[in-house]
Design a protein that fits this description.
Two copies of one chain form a homodimer. Chain A is an alpha+beta fold. The first copy, chain A, is 19% helix and 42% strand. The first copy, chain A, folds into three domains: 2-115, DNA Polymerase III, subunit A, domain 2 (DNA Polymerase III, Chain A, domain 2), CATH 3.10.150; 126-245, DNA Polymerase III, Chain A, domain 2; 249-360, Roll (DNA Polymerase III, Chain A, domain 2). Chain A is built from seven helices and 26 strands. In chain A, helix 6 (260-271) runs antiparallel to helix 7. The mean pLDDT of chain A is 93. Chain A binds chain B through residues 70, 72-73, 76-77, 80-82, 96, 103-109, 265-266, 268-269, 272-273, 297-304, and chain B through 70, 72-73, 76-77, 80-82, 96, 103-109, 265-266, 268-269, 272-273, 297-304.
């Protein structure tokens, strides 16, 4: 192997793939980045076996080949290279890679390239494409509702229920749920349910540009997202996602429209007086005034804001962090909250017509509070 | 107590004093910030008993008084207040403080104000002043050489040896030493040695502005730094600082002038191939070429740079982190390194005439390397 490239091209690609490196994995090869020459380009890859990322960058190839270099060293080194042409050359004597930059030279000991896990895409697969901009928007709208708890893997994923030319995209940790529906062009009669790990989609939004059109390939238990130069492979989560349609209430008893930022700020301030583990705040609405209040050992707080309210007055308690996650994900100046009963989920959605909402279960209020 | 101020004035002052709060201290009162009204101003204070910081800010006082509020709550709350006038008022019923902002109101439970440690300045003290700009420069030039290890308290401090109208300022962790000498105006025949905790001086550079002239008061075992509105009190470290004059070599055998950034970058790259605990790199100089090299299990590296060298060729090994700390503290484009013997300290100093240098002990090279 012998190639040259610029510091910038090399560093950009390394910063993309190093997000899939698992430095603490017991398999040392997984702390490496694989380099493989192509036609006028080099493709580098990293994987933690759940998620794999590859990225290609332009390079002048003098001699084809491949190698695996330790991710930490090559990443930190690439950051600190001077702005000159960088040459990579396998050392036939000992399998290390000689890197030349200016008048300087490093020789890095690598890993046996044959130990690096291969990405293979089963021939029996399904393909469709989606706009990177829309996919990023959708992910940012639902990802907050996924569970962090790896003991319940199903809830760490996001459901993509694709049929009839649309996709319903759903996340829930059983305390809250976020749902978005989009149209998908040119998918014909594709009918498929995918549960994609939240971590995969989070990494996807970091590495793929907004302007990219993403090619999606689905095989038995994996999904591949591809842009012009980046490819991201992830396992899929097995199991049956809960029936979200059953959970979304149809009719509301009362309904409030309010300024998103006002409620976020009030509930952030109020939660400062609560315990960090359970930041429970009270919300009551009466005569178009919404009151956020807490009363704890640390003190009391009461904030008022004007809202547009239709229906009876009401009182709820919420986990302030969950409420704010939902409010921030909506991203519009105003939101609508629909109330369906004293202990039923509250619906939070944008004022604008959009097939998007999130559900939040209220917390049961104790008598004394 | 009853006063009002703006969010900005309040938040600025809180951000200054909260650096002295010790949230995990077993004494709960030390997790609080004390508020005390003055003439058209409020002074707030925090202390961890080693370091105390006070800051005054303009306020309209309706009723004098004092209180202690939990630092975490009041700091986070101040950050999140809307941009309106903020009113603070003691609640005579239960000793809490009612904070009003716009149409909202919080009531924060405080701590008994009489439990808050008093700053008292002994009448028998010594005063002098120093430019904030110069003090900050001096601190940034020597602080890297202090020890982090609290088991050797003497070396966590910086010596200010003041006499004959000058101050010698010295820090050492016994592996390296940094020394700077400055003139002090108007100190008459003041003759005093202070060992000030590095942590105190670090906080001082964060809270005091460059344009401030600092009034320094020294009492038996404490030192107070004062600007117009900020006061910082610290204990002094007892003991006898090592005799730094004995350690600084007088004459050199050979001398090299080089570009600071070149050597920093080369040794940062080289240390990527070393173990993090002991980033030992080799430096050899021959015929006006300086070579940085390492040879470890991870690989090899060799970088060359042109230097101006007077005297014999030589070879040294250094801890790369220590070397870079010294090079970065100098802050000039070029540095001079003076060599005094194979295992004697190397002197690192700016090219410009300045009474500033640092010493670095080389690492003993093993035969095989």
């Amino acid at each position: 192997m012998h190639f040259s490239s610029t510091k910038e091209e090399l560093l950009n690609a390394i910063q993309v793939v190093q997000r899939a490196v698992s430095p603490r994995n017991p398999l040392p090869i997984l702390s490496g980045i694989k380099f493989e020459t192509g036609e006028g380009s080099v493709t580098i890859s990293a994987t933690d076996l759940e998620l794999g990322i590859s990225c290609s960058f332009p390079a002048e190839i003098s001699e084809p080949g491949k190698t695996v270099l330790p991710a930490r060293v090559i990443t930190e080194l690439a950051r600190r290279f001077p702005n000159v042409k960088i040459f990579f050359k396998s050392d036939p004597l000992n399998g290390s890679v000689i890197i030349q930059y200016g008048k300087s030279e490093a020789s890095i000991n690598g890993y046996p390239v044959e130990e690096f896990p291969e990405f293979t895409i089963p021939a029996d697969n399904t393909k469709f494409t989606i706009s990177g901009e829309i996919l990023k928007e959708v992910i940012s709208q639902v990802i907050f509702a996924t569970a962090r708890d790896e003991n319940r893997p199903l809830y760490t994923g996001i459901l993509f229920e694709i049929n009839n030319g649309t996709a319903n995209i759903v996340a829930t940790d059983t305390h809250r749920l976020a749902w978005r529906k989009i149209l998908l062009d040119g998918i014909g009669d594709l009918d498929i349910n995918l549960i994609i790990p939240g971590k995969t989609l989070n990494e996807l939004t970091r590495v793929a540009g907004l302007s990219d059109r993403l090619d999606i390939t689905v095989a038995e238990n994996q999904v591949i997202f591809e842009t012009k130069n980046i490819s991201l492979v992830s396992r899929l989560i097995g199991g049956n996602f809960p029936n979200y349609r059953q959970v979304i209430p149809g009719d509301y008893i009362s309904k409030t429209r309010l300024k998103t930022r006002d409620l976020i700020e009030a509930s952030e301030r109020a939660s400062l007086l609560t315990s960090e583990g359970a930041p429970i705040i009270k919300i009551s609405i009466e005569n178009s005034i919404l009151v956020v209040s807490v009363n704890t050992e640390a003190g009391r707080m009461r904030e008022e804001m004007s809202v547009y309210h239709e229906g009876e007055g009401l009182q709820f308690a919420f986990n302030a962090r969950y409420l704010n996650d939902a409010l921030k994900a909506i991203g519009t100046d105003e939101v609508v909250m629909e109330f369906t009963g004293p202990l039923s989920p509250v619906i939070i959605k944008p004022v604008e017509e959009m097939e998007y909402l999130s559900l939040l279960l209220p917390v049961r209020l104790r008598e004394e509070s």
